[in-house]
Q: What sequence folds into this?
């Protein structure tokens, strides 16, 4: 669906009180158009309706007229440069940002993340901020659980197959 049609639906959702649907549509638009600061601003407005200053600060982080309390809430929720880099969901080089302030903010977050990881990172993919870092989530234990679950499923299917063969030859 084109951006203008989706924005019209966002307006209709908000007018009808369907704030969660408006938020979902705006999140999709920001994902599709990460360099459009007006979409990020609209998403911040929706989060204000929820009373979520950290998320409003997240989506207004690249705007010069952002609210200081919301910015502080965002920085408190996403404490490390790596978390902020992922939360901002930017793609492409900073030069794609439509304002000098946004370029500076993006460069500062990327530089801080590079310094924290001890190597250069970029915005183009999550591969630039690898999952093998300590705060990356479940890691090896999650991989083990996924493998164990697959093994259990295969053994269950094998048991059903063997029982079927036994029943067939009785």
A:
């Amino acid at each position: 669906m084109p951006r203008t049609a989706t924005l019209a639906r966002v307006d209709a959702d908000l007018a009808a009180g369907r704030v969660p649907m408006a938020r979902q549509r705006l999140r999709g638009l920001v994902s599709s158009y990460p360099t459009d600061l007006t979409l990020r601003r609209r998403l911040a407005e929706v989060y204000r309706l929820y009373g979520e200053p950290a998320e409003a600060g997240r989506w207004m982080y690249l705007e010069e007229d952002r609210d200081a309390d919301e910015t502080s809430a965002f920085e408190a929720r996403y404490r490390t440069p790596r978390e902020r880099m992922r939360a901002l969901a930017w793609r492409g080089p900073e030069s794609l940002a439509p304002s000098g302030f946004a370029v500076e903010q993006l460069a500062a977050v990327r530089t801080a993340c590079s310094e924290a990881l001890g190597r250069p990172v970029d915005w183009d993919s999550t591969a630039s901020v690898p999952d093998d870092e300590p705060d990356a989530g479940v890691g090896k234990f999650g991989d083990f659980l996924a493998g164990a679950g697959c093994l259990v499923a295969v053994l269950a299917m094998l048991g059903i197959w063997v029982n079927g063969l036994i029943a067939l030859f009785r």
